[in-house]
Design goal:
It is built from 13 helices and 18 strands. By secondary structure, it is α/β, with parallel strands linked by helices. The chain folds into 4 domains: 40 residues, no CATH class; 219 residues, Rossmann fold (3-Layer(aba) Sandwich), CATH 3.40.50.300; 77 residues, OB fold (Dihydrolipoamide Acetyltransferase, E2P), CATH 2.40.50.990; 35 residues, no CATH class. The N and C termini lie far apart (70 Å).
Length: 445
């Protein structure tokens, strides 16, 4: 039987090929032998063994946005996403897909998740990203964490939007101030059984029994967060709502409501300085390797596989994520684009998790390996806790809005005692004049 194979995996081609059809000078030329034999006749083909853009490539460098500040995270090796004793078993199956897994991710993580098909790699990633809930154990993430997730079958992200241009798709996805895809994760959705349990929870507030309608806001307290509670039968206005600490609400079973508010706040923090305009989106997609002409004027149904992957990469990183999770990102990308993606991952300021069978790609990027085998995880490599570099917060002094106007952005520097007193005087004057004044913590502005 004759097989015709298109692949960017040099080892695979060396093992199976008896002939190579090579594209040279707008013509096809045939060589006998495998890829190694091709290099003997065509020395420039050596670049197929190297994860770097060829000299003749017209591939723009990829660049992911900086993730931004995370409250309380001083070093890059501090855990910002972790799971403890996590087990997941699909319904009506004889045994778990993953079992008793404990692991964490930090801003400095560069993790390769490897193992045979069916070993539980994608399931573990879905549990970490909140796509599915663990059967046992728990997942914790920083309250302000933003995660970008590209699924194994990357095109499922856009299959309902093929009539849109890439630019229109991103505008749709973030038009409500957060990622529409993230809103559907199960760690934020309350099912009927959970709703019944919460309906029976009663709080005693000022001697009165009350039930929660919903949570409507969040603010920073000294060592925790407080959440504004809208009570059933009352109005969601300041004199009829109550601020309760996170720990109390967690103990009463409101973890998913908390996760929903946290996600909204985290999304707002990542998007507030990025106006959702066609020009801004086009620039962002250029940083992900998609030319402006395609992002603005081509419907996605007409794009190549590689271009669609770039759209998905651009869409998931629009909100300045702290962690990027890529399940088989090497599919559909040629070697030059893979080299550009690898460079973007190297320079990215946040954590990266990669599932791939492309060993060359993983070896070039990852210092840590999670090896999955029959649902069990073995960790190899990675930095020891406490040895990471300090987090450097890059302050943005200004932004450009959709009309091209320059807007100054408030500093987040620590205020001196004198500045704090002056700020408090201004707040008192504002209150005396009947102006609304935020009660957020005073040391930052």
């Amino acid at each position: 039987m004759t097989s015709i194979v298109v692949s960017h995996d040099s080892d695979f081609l060396d093992n199976i090929c008896t002939n190579i059809i090579h594209y040279e000078g707008r013509k096809l030329k045939t060589y006998k032998g495998n890829l190694a034999e091709l290099v003997k006749h065509c020395p420039e083909a050596k670049s197929y063994y190297e994860l770097q853009a060829s000299e003749t490539a017209f591939v723009q460098a990829f660049k992911f946005p900086e993730p931004g500040f995370l409250d309380g995270v001083k070093t890059k090796d501090r855990a910002i996403l972790k799971c403890h004793s996590v087990t997941y078993q699909y319904p009506n199956t004889p045994k778990p897909v993953i079992e008793n897994v404990s692991i964490y991710v930090s801003l400095s993580s560069r993790v390769a998740v490897v193992g045979p098909n069916g070993a539980g790699k994608s399931t573990l990633i879905k549990v970490l990203c909140g796509e599915i809930e663990p059967t046992d154990g728990n997942v914790w993430k920083h309250q302000n964490l933003r995660v970008a997730y590209v699924a194994q079958h990357a095109f499922h992200h856009i299959e309902s939007h093929l009539e849109k241009t890439p630019n229109e798709y991103i505008q749709w996805r973030y038009a409500i101030g957060e990622d529409r895809e993230a809103m559907g994760t199960v760690d934020r959705k309350i099912d009927d059984e959970e709703a019944k349990k919460l309906a029976a929870v009663v709080f005693s507030i000022d001697g009165q029994k009350r039930k929660i309608e919903k949570l409507i806001a969040r603010r920073k307290a000294k060592k925790t967060y407080e959440y504004e509670v809208h009570w059933q039968g009352m109005q969601p206005i300041p004199d009829q709502t109550t601020w309760l600490p996170r720990e109390k609400l967690e103990d009463m079973g409101y973890s998913k409501m908390l996760a929903d508010i946290d996600a909204k706040e985290a999304a707002a923090a990542g998007l507030w300085a990025k106006p959702l305009t066609s020009d801004n989106i086009a620039k962002h997609l250029e940083d992900c390797g998609l030319e402006r002409e395609f992002s603005l004027h081509s419907q996605m149904k007409g794009l190549s596989g590689g271009q669609k992957v770039k759209v998905v990469l651009g869409a998931c990183t629009w909100n300045n994520p702290h962690i990027i999770v890529l399940d088989e990102p090497t599919n559909y990308l040629d070697r030059d684009s893979l080299a550009a993606l690898a460079e973007a991952i190297k320079t990215f300021g946040g954590g990266v998790l990669l599932i791939s069978h492309h060993q060359e790609f993983l070896d070039a990027l990852c210092q840590e390996c999670w090896r999955m085998d029959a649902g069990r995880l073995t960790k190899e490599g990675g930095a020891e806790p406490g040895t990471g570099e300090k987090v450097e917060t890059i302050q943005q002094d200004e932004m450009i809005d959709g009309a091209g106007n320059t807007i100054k952005i408030k500093s987040t520097k620590k205020l001196s005692r004198k500045e704090l007193k002056q700020k408090e005087r201004y707040k008192k004057l504002a209150r005396a004049n009947g102006e609304a004044v935020s009660d957020d913590e005073d040391e930052d502005y």
